[in-house]
Amino acid sequence: MAGLEFDNSFVRDLDGLYERWSATTAANPELVVLNDELARELGVDPDDLRSPHGADLLVGNVVPDGAEPVAQAYAGHQFGGYSPRLGDGRALLLGEVITAEDRRCDIHLKGSGRTPFARGGDGLAAFGPMLREYLMCEAMHALGIPTTRGLAVITTGDDVARETMLPGAVFVRVASSHLRVGTFQYAASLDDPTVLSRLVDHAIARHVPEAVDAEIPALAFLGAVIDAQAELIARWMLVGFIHGVMNTDNMTISGETIDYGPCAFMDAYDPATVFSSIDHGGRYAFGNQPQMALWNLARLAESLLPFIDPDADSAIEIATDALQQFPDRFRRAWSLGMAVKLGLAAIPDDVADLADDFLALLQVAGADFTSTFRSLSRFVDGDEEPLRSSLGAAEGFDAWLVRWDAARATGALTADAMDAVNPVYVPRNHLVDGALTAATAGDLGPFTELVDVLRRPFVDQPGRERYAEPAPPDFASGFRTFCGT
Prior knowledge:
The mean pLDDT is 95. The chain is an alpha+beta fold and 485 residues long. 44% of the residues lie in helices and 12% in strands. The radius of gyration is 23 Å and the shape is globular. It folds into 2 domains: 9-178, no CATH class; 212-485, no CATH class.
């Protein structure tokens, strides 16, 4: 893209993990959404991207100087079943750029046409799902959660055949890399052992360079990924986010959230909550996400065994010890975050139980997750009505308040500090659904306003109270999310 200098280490280092490819030519590309702030971070003038030439670059009609478009190869366990060859069926990695802050970023096109990994699909994407991914990326970023980012959404001028004909689009995604657990699974399955060796070296150099000096670099790398994922999943759980499709090909090595397909945010708190239309057994329900992350990490560890110890039994024992650290690391990250959400400056010994019991009250009362946590700071400031309205009828609520007050006596945070971690606004499912429906019909206004609201999730925005309200019961009871393929 104009102004970008590409340095494509993935292509340079990892022959065997990609196919060189070109995007399908879009008939009439039109830039619909552009993230000006992110464009500037990447060193691009947003006005250049708004030109016809800029739209051609963003949609893949024109290959930017220095870019080397490839479809990446990876495998993956999908709902527990192993698929040995998945890969970018409808996406291309244009290449990598290095920002002024010395951050290496992938520039990636989603919906750019069939590739050798398409597996019978058309390789295209519909406008609504690409807007959804853009919105979710930017909402998660504003919430402070590690995530891929949305640079742009461009309509292609071509229709996409789904249940009906829908306008086609390409989503331009930015990530610190697109290396996944499934990338390692694929490399480990190849006859050429040098591919996996090169991948391990590449991933360490790119994401955990300090591991080079460790006694066992691959083990240090595994530990760093375990830490990153423990922190990430804790942050998901602290805001009520449900990824919906935590397959191993959707878990990054970097610890960034990726692939916002059937994701959603809870309204009423229930750890069994599932929105995904394809998660029939609840494998990826809200409360299962930590154990599913650990399951995925075990698949990564399996790929790394030859680099941990040449003796297979010893390698398994060492890797198992590393994996057994995940529950404590997750719980510690979650407990620290929950303490701040509850307004606790210090962490008494029973803070985890206090948090668990608060969530139990939410579940019994059917209370809204986001707004009830936000009401805690109002309670601290003397306005008890919102919290009592949510939980006052739940048995044990007054006893919990006594325990909470005692915990705060050992060191309390201000209401402002609580508000800095308890959002007013999250991407409420009914608002997202309505905005995407309107946009697909030609009205981008609701989408634009929703994105604007979500860029400041912790700040009350007068006149936008409806964006903080949970879905009407008739919507919430039957709502399902879809992969958008």
